[in-house]
Structure formats: C-alpha cells, structure tokens
Design goal:
two-stranded antiparallel ribbon; globular; single chain; ten-stranded mixed sheet; alpha/beta; Rossmann fold; 7 helices; 242 residues; 12 strands; 24% helix
Length: 242
C-alpha cells in the first residue's frame, strides 16, 4: 500500500477536485466525476474539495469503518444527486433523519426517495443512470451479503462500527474504504487486513473527529469532512460516532 500521487487540476467556477493517479478501477471510484454520481466528501490539506464517484455505471462496494455521522452524511449526499437510498438496519430510529430530510411527495405522503428496511432480503428499486441506488447495510461489524451490488448504478455501503477479525472478506472486496479514527488494537487489525505499514497504522489512531482516510488499491488519502449548514441542522456537528 503506497500513498497516491496527486495532480492538481482546475475547472470552472466551482473548481474540480484533485485527480488521483491510481489504477483505472480506483480512478473511477475515487476521482472528480462528470456524472451525477460525483459527490464531494471532504477537503484536502490545502482546503481543496475531494470528490468520490460513489454512484457509477458499475456495481460498487464501499466499506465505512466508523460512526453513524459519516454514514448518514454519505447517504444525504447521495440523495442530493438524485439517488434512491435504501437503508437496511437494526436501528431504524437512527436513520429516520433521512426520511425527514427527504420530505413529503406531491400527495403529502412520505417521499419514496428513502426506504428504511429490516436486515432481511427485499426487492430493491431498479437502478439506472437517472435513478442510481445507494444501499446502506448497517448490520454490525460482520455484515451478511443481503444486498450485494449486482448491476450498474448500484452502490452498497457497509457500515462497520469497528474492525472485526471476521470482516476481512467484506473489507477486501470493497472498491473504496473510508476509515475514521481507530483504537490501537483495531488499527493493528486493519494493518493485517490491508497490509499497512506502521506510519499509516499510527495515523489511523490519531485522526481527529472530522478526519477520514480514503483507502484503496494504491490509495491512501487523508481528508477532512466538510459539512454544510443544512447538514448540520439535520445531523448536528461533525463527530466520530454516535
């Protein structure tokens, strides 16, 4: 695992995030995106926006090791670019903020943009470029493959509250991993799973509450979460967990 190189690029009025010079597969997963699936996740050390193509024309897996704040922020931003969001969870009350944020449809009923489900297989909406699908699997540290991404424009996010020895298969199958601060023991487990050198392990144990590491093939990119005023009203202040 080596640090990715960066090529700073500049775009229009809004600017374009730095482009990661990594493998073609990861370049598609973590890069500035011209499609509607591009989402600004945070900022780099110089304050530049960093974008992930979380919704793309390929089945995609994202593993998130950390708290509910980051998971819900990713879901909110998927909604903002027009994605359906299906949350499979054993703690539905923790995700009701998404339904409130989605608001009501024209008929006054709850908008179908967000569905909160139990941890059991269900029929999913059919994803497309115009209606991509984000499935959030909030099933603990050793998730089952209830909703594996099988079609383009479907992304499954596995929310792991902590590193577990039996989560290695899920972690290694991910196209992108987002890591928040880990205790020493869990950071050492992460080192075994992803073959991280000691400096990276040390960095994982010292991340601030608003810091995340994006990890992938030939990719190690620390970033700082950026939260809009509206997101703060929905989620509260940035924090490591709930």
């Amino acid at each position: 695992m080596s640090s990715s190189r960066l090529l700073d690029t500049k775009g229009g009025a809004g600017g374009i995030a730095p482009e990661f010079l990594v493998s073609p597969e990861m370049l598609d997963a973590v890069s500035p995106s011209g499609d509607r699936g591009g989402m600004v996740l945070g900022s780099g050390l110089q304050g530049e926006p960093l974008t992930i193509s979380a919704l793309r024309p390929a089945p995609t897996r994202i593993v998130l090791v950390g708290g509910l704040y980051l998971a819900r922020q990713v879901a909110l931003r998927a909604m903002a670019v027009g994605a359906w969001v299906v949350v499979a969870t054993g703690r539905p009350a923790a995700w009701q903020v998404l339904q409130k944020a989605a608001g009501a449809g024209p008929d006054g009923r709850q908008a179908p943009l967000v569905q909160i489900r139990r941890l059991s297989p269900v029929e999913l909406p059919r994803p497309s470029e115009d209606s991509p699908l984000l499935v959030v699997h909030d099933g603990g540290p050793t998730p089952q493959e209830l909703f594996p991404p099988r079609s383009p424009w479907q992304t499954t996010v596995y929310v792991l509250p902590y590193m577990h020895p039996q989560a290695g298969a899920t972690a290694n199958a991910a196209d992108l991993v987002l890591l928040q601060r880990l205790p020493v023991g869990q950071a050492q487990l992460a080192a075994r799973v992803w073959r991280l050198p000691p400096p990276m392990v040390q960095q994982l144990t010292t991340l601030a509450d608003d810091q995340v590491v994006a990890l992938g093939r030939n990719l190690w990119r620390p970033l700082r979460l950026v939260t809009t005023q509206k997101e703060q009203q929905i989620l509260g202040p940035v924090r490591r967990g709930d």
